[in-house]
Design a protein that fits this description.
Elements (H helix, E strand, L loop, with lengths): L43 E13 L4 E12 L8 E11 L4 E12 L6 E4 L4 E4 L15 E7 L8 E5 L4 E6 L4 E6 L2 E3 L3 E4 L11 H17 L4 E5 L5 H10 L2 E5 L14 H8 L1
Parallel strand pairs: 12-13, 13-14
Antiparallel strand pairs: 1-2, 2-5, 2-6, 3-4, 3-7, 7-8, 9-10, 10-11
């Protein structure tokens, strides 16, 4: 690694195949176009939900902090969408709502990926925790977003596990100890690369079977963790990992500025932090 390579800001994945003759792979995932029409709220989308959990195993309870990103794709009228956005948590076993929090939002026209934090945090009792493979059941709850004025119109639905992941440095031995829900965890993992022929999302059912089988191979090898080297996957992949109790360690690609910390600029730090 010399010269300009040390400052090459790469956001990509490693493809171990020989280079294509024209040095270009073209499109490697499906392209989707979504038409938004109707009232002002029809131009609003919800994406990238996140639930941060603080777990108390002694009282079998948890504090849940919910966040999502909201976009207003109406970039011509100048209309500001003012709504009450609600986040609801459902236990799939009973189909009962165990918690709900609503937040007033004001999203100007042409706003993309505005972060919305639901306050105060939600307190839940008698929780079923998510555990990694080998440690217990990876129990999942359902998270739904909707406007208070139209509760039957679900804007986004996803699954998540109530879990608290922590790490600390053991200075005496110079290694990192990981804990899940306060229990020490042994990380058993290996690197993961996508299909080298980039056969992705050709058929939703076949793709689910293909990825699920790969993740089951991870379990059969006795592993509980996989590492990405820049080849970040779609949401469905991570949902399957959650379902099967597989932890994911996303990593940045080697052979560029990411492994040359002394040469990092403010831009590099900003991208790494994001």
């Amino acid at each position: 690694m010399k010269g300009s390579n040390t400052t090459d800001l790469a956001i990509s994945f490693i493809d171990w195949n020989p280079y294509a003759p024209d040095s270009s792979m073209g499109l490697w995932q499906e392209v989707e176009l979504t038409e938004l029409q109707g009232g002002q709220s029809a131009y609003v989308t919800i994406a990238n939900p996140l639930v941060n959990s603080t777990v108390n195993r002694q009282s079998n309870s948890a504090i849940l902090r919910v966040m999502c990103e909201v976009s207003n794709y109406d970039d011509t009228s100048g209309m500001v969408v003012e709504e009450t956005l609600c986040a609801s948590i459902i236990d799939p076993n009973t189909n009962e709502e165990i918690a709900q929090q609503c937040q007033n939002i004001s999203i100007p026209s042409g706003t993309y990926n505005a972060k919305v934090f639901f306050a105060p945090p939600m307190a839940v009792e008698n929780v079923r925790l998510w555990w990694p493979y080998h440690m217990g059941t990876p129990y999942l709850y359902v998270l739904r977003f909707f406007f208070a004025t139209t509760p039957d119109n679900i804007l986004l639905e996803s699954k998540f596990g109530i879990r608290q992941v922590e790490s600390k440095l053991i200075t005496a031995y110079q290694y990192t100890l990981f804990q899940v829900n306060g229990v020490d965890m042994i990380v058993l993992g290996g690197g993961y690369a996508p299909d080298l022929l980039l056969q992705f999302e050709q058929n939703a059912r076949d793709n689910d079977t293909f990825i699920r089988r790969q993740l089951q191979y991870v379990q059969w090898m006795g592993l509980n963790t996989i590492r990405m080297e820049g080849n970040f996957q779609n949401e469905h992949f991570y949902q399957l990992c959650d379902e099967l109790g597989i932890l994911v360690m996303p990593g940045l690609p080697c052979c560029d500025s990411w492994q040359h910390w002394s040469d990092w600029t403010s831009q590099t730090y900003s991208v790494a932090q994001e």
